[in-house]
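From: lab user (bench 3)
To: helpdesk
Subject: output format question, protein + adenosine-5'-triphosphate

Hello, I'm new to running complex predictions and I'm not sure whether the block I got back is the full result or only part of it. Here's what I submitted:
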Amino acid sequence: MLPRAVAGSCARPPASGGASPAAAAVRAAVPAGDAAPAAPAARKPLIPATSPTRKTTHKPPPAGQGKVAARNAALIQAAAALIWAPQAALIAMAIGGLAHGAPASAMLAPAAGVLALGLLRAALDALGVRRAFQGARPILTARRRDACAAMAARSPLDMNRAASGEAAAIIGEQAEAVQAWLARFQPARMKASIVPLVILACVAPLSWVAGLILLIAAPLIPLFMALIGWRAKAASEAQLVEMGAMNAFLLDRLRGLATIRTLGAVETTATRLRANAETVRRKTMAVLRIAFLSSAVLELFSALGVALVAVYIGFHLLGDLPFGAWGGKLTLAQGLFILLLAPAFFEPLRELSAVWHDKAAGEAAMTALDRLSAPGEGPAAIPLPGAQAPERQGEAATDPARSGSTPPASSLSVAPPPTGPLMVTAHGLRFRYPGAATPALPDGFSVNIAAGERVALLGPSGGGKSTLLALLAGLAAPQHGVITIGGQRLDDASAARLRQRMAWIGQQPHVFTGGLEANVSLGRAAPNVRASAGRALRWANLADVAASRGGAIIGEGGVGLSGGEALRLALARAAFNQEAGLVLADEPTAHLDRATAGAVTESLLELAKGRTLIVATHDPELARRMDRTIHLPSPTALEERS
Ligand SMILES: Nc1ncnc2c1ncn2[C@@H]1O[C@H](COP(=O)(O)OP(=O)(O)OP(=O)(O)O)[C@@H](O)[C@H]1O
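Helpdesk reply: Thanks, we reran it on our side. This is the complete output you should expect:
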């Protein structure tokens, strides 16, 4: 089985600014896929993250740079919000002037001023939003890249790796919440800490009563929002976990659809899926309930604050409440100015509350990304030799501890493995899966396979055939013993380079979304890629399939391939790799009818010309066609020995 591929990140424009917390929560709680069909760009062919010739470069997230960009964007947005103060002053003065008998023509200058300031405000606001989005995007991309790199740095044999469905849901979909959090919550927080203070500074010198009302009403909003926010975060996290679990379950069952049908387990699977969906619905409703509750609290307090200011100003102007203006009496213009500013005082607090759910969802998504990006250390982890997690950049090549218990004698050798068929040796191997009671291979297992030899690994189920192939492919490191490929020791430093000279044919090759040719080349660099992929397809007897599909998308969401065709695709992939001097095949004829299995056997033999071939199989016919057979003992024999 090749390492699972992880979907790359896809850009999505910022969500439109929601006015209420409920709207924000609906955005956060409802999966994007439910709200709108995936954009065609999101269906690009995927390339395995550990594709041998594809080098992943990891850059650290531009945290410092991102922070400066976010602060600048927030300041621009705060400045835009503050423009309302001079606009309100112009409007109040103009109406005050009218009340005192000024001619209508006196309105023209203030109206022009309000218009000009309005345009400036809109421009600044747009600039601030744009800057915030541009500042947040690279941070999200870096986090996604880190998560993909950390996943790729774990062996496909590692059972503790996140399931593909869960990883795809977190990296592809849930991670978008980080963008909303960074681009919207942080500017909103900055606005909420600057704008009300400035407005208070404008209002208080005119009327201490109005200032006091605002001062008392304002902190109640963040206080209640914080109280509700704690629950919102917990609810968002629970919802994300449930969504990831459902995706993982769905993907797993889709992969095994044929088996489910064969075993008549369709109804059971559907029932379980229905139960999962019901749990997701309940968790989503919990998030929405909290959102609507916080929305009600917020509107109540801001409406009360504005109403109290309006009542006071009204009665003050009528002379019923003659106090509160520092010993004097407010003019109509001053009263209007305060009235116009009162809603603007609460506006940033409302906005902050509206994006509070972005914060809850963003933090929950960030935690999920962190979990994926964790390098997978500890007793249960199986690191992928030769792969580098982002944190380990530059460290792996010089760290002997990572290459197993034996010192990396030839790891300093940078000579490329020889061309042509590769000799394979294994000496004194010991390998036990983390947490397993018994070794997966006979202890001290040794083997010598000559260059160009064709060998079958035979043995009962669970005897360790696939494990041995995985160790030879450098997908996991043995706890003891030495493997050499083409005379070079397979270790942490050489694994990635040696894997480039290997081809792997699994039982159920993964078909990526994309055309047949792209599925053969898998993003690998080669001269005349298309022509070479076409040749490989013709060689694997897939020319007819390619012609009938006419460049259509195959794989996830596209037209599928039969089991035999998928196997032939794997053969074409191996044939495409002209550099491969070692072909490792894991039960290539399993699940195939006799005729197709025979055809696959012939193709394998042809592929093996000029290459070394090691096949794990239960198929006696395939084993008979090999030069030699190696028997691996049964697991019970191993248990007795251990
Ligand atoms: N990723 C894994 N994590 C933990 N244990 C594993 C893992 N893969 C295999 N094993 C265990 O290791 C032992 C050897 O399994 P392996 O798949 O290598 O046998 P096999 O000979 O290929 O079997 P089969 O013919 O059924 O494919 C088994 O006991 C199996 O349960």
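A quick orientation on your result: Residues 157, 159, 433, 436, 440, 459, 461-467, 616, 635 surround adenosine-5'-triphosphate (CB under 6 Å). Let us know if anything else is unclear.
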